[in-house]
Predict the structure.
Amino acid sequence: MTVDAARSPLAAHRAAREGAALFARPDSGLIEVTGAERLVYLNNLSTNKLVDLAPGRAARAFLLVPTKGRVLADFVACEAGAATWLECQGGSAPTVLELLGKYYFGQDVAFADRSAEWRVLALVGPDAAAILAGVAREIPPAEEKTHEETRIGDTAVRALRWSDAGPSGWHLWVPDNAVEPIRRTLVEAGAVPGSEEEWTLLQIESGIAAYGRELGEDGIPLEAPTEDAIDHAKGCYPGQEVIARLHVRGRPARHLKGLRIEGVDPLPAGTVLDAADKAGVATVTASAVSPSLGPVALAYVHRDWCGAGTRLTVDGRDAEVADLPLVPWNEE
């Protein structure tokens, strides 16, 4: 029996909180940006300050709809000295590439989609550092949003110290033809392979807004916990006026919140919940069953009903609004 077949349901969820878990991120794509003006070019288009990004450092940023401030793409920019690499989340790499081309007017910059050449693995949990140090030739970076090239066996990989699941960890950029050997090495070293369902559960418990689910063209990033991707002091970029106005006013129409749900089953994404005095005040974006809390969800809740403890209902079931994270990453 293989390691994957032998594992129990939610074994990787538990490992992410108590040991280490390994997840494939098939929707994460990589774009390589080169040229002397690349950081200025990226900075002028993005929500975060990238112009002075130093080699070995990384920063998350969004590309927005110019007139509405809504999210077109979500990426982590990693400066590597000769190039800036963009790890694009949730299948947004084609959109990023299209937008980079749209604003190109002869600047000293070039961009290429490398998604077919590389795959992204996420290694998360309190034991992730020990596992990675045990199989990699160089000690991986310890500071959040740093990255460096290392080797696992004879394969060069890049380790990005960043986690979008809640528990701390790394994204590993692995050559496409080496994914299975690298995955096997990490599992044999103690990482528990995880499923997409377990990944989603970790994100719900940790209050992580994901592109293509909570973030997209129907929402403004300030409605969710995304401040790490926005620099309010930097210069102009497409959509900046909308973000600046909402930041100063400080009252988004809705907020991403957690829900603790009565019963035993999760609520389907898109479920609309009512308050006692108002219909349709919340919409579920993702839901799962937490081993410690039971059915839980992420939901966008109208600002007038988003206080922790507010009771909502749907089809005779009660749900309670809760602040995020629902479960801190180092507790169960």
Remarks:
- The chain has a mean pLDDT of 94.
